[in-house]
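Practice record 12: protein with benzoic acid.
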Amino acid sequence: MNTATRDPEAVLTETVLDTFARTPDPRLRQLMQSLVRHLHAFVSDVEPTEAEWMAAIRFLTETGQICDGVVRQEFILLSDTLGVSMLVDAINHRKPGHATESTVFGPFYIAGMPDRAAGEDMAQTPGEPALVHGYVRDTEGRPLAGAVLDVWQTAANGMYSGQDTAQPEGNLRGRYRADDTGYYAIRTILPVSYPIPGDGPVGRMMAATDRHIFRPAHLHFMIEAPGHQTLVTHLFNAGDPYLASDAVFGVKPSLVVQYEPRGADSPLAARYGFRSGFHEGQYDFVLPRA
Ligand code: BEZ
Ligand code: FE
């Protein structure tokens, strides 16, 4: 069949694909041609009006405009709320069965946060006192001495330091180190569930589609040990009402931790300086070889 007798819409797609056929880098050629194929298929499927297409372009424009280059990254939020971040994570972290699972990185990590001693309290704002501790090991059960655990979480108001300028710098952030036995200990406050930023295009998309914008309570980790895969993950609080409906699809059952109430008479209270009751969460991380 020559092109004159064929569906002009299909011909257009092929014409566009052909313009990328000489892309010297084969990976870039594959990416661009697949993008064109899927994008054209989407448009053919939904047959947007011109007003709808302009609304889509306005949405993407505003998504870029609200980014501030520091903590507000609306494109990451869009990727997260569409489940794309978790899909990329799943594709790139197909781990052996007993290695700790990864989850979404999120937009609120800040590099260069303070080094903290074992058991040091990283909370400079009030909340329910908590201890999170356990071991970092390799897949053979050997301790990963000196593994660095970069940790971050929100304050009790549901906002991260950096995002909330009223909080002291470095609040609820820090870099802990596993000891020679692989043991780590973080003194902090109990994480709370919180809304992702809802005042931009992504928030409007969530409202228009009758989705809530909450994430279940969690503590973020990035764990690095030489010769091993870097692990980006969270620990989620058991019992959180949003575990089954995380706005960014980050929950995995293996990452849910039951915090246990402990009294001021607990040996851990004396060891870590808790003067009243606190919540204890225990979790062991397993990192595969790089
Ligand atoms: C977070 O957990 O920090 C986060 C992840 C995805 C989107 C927004 C926030
Ligand atoms: Fe978070």
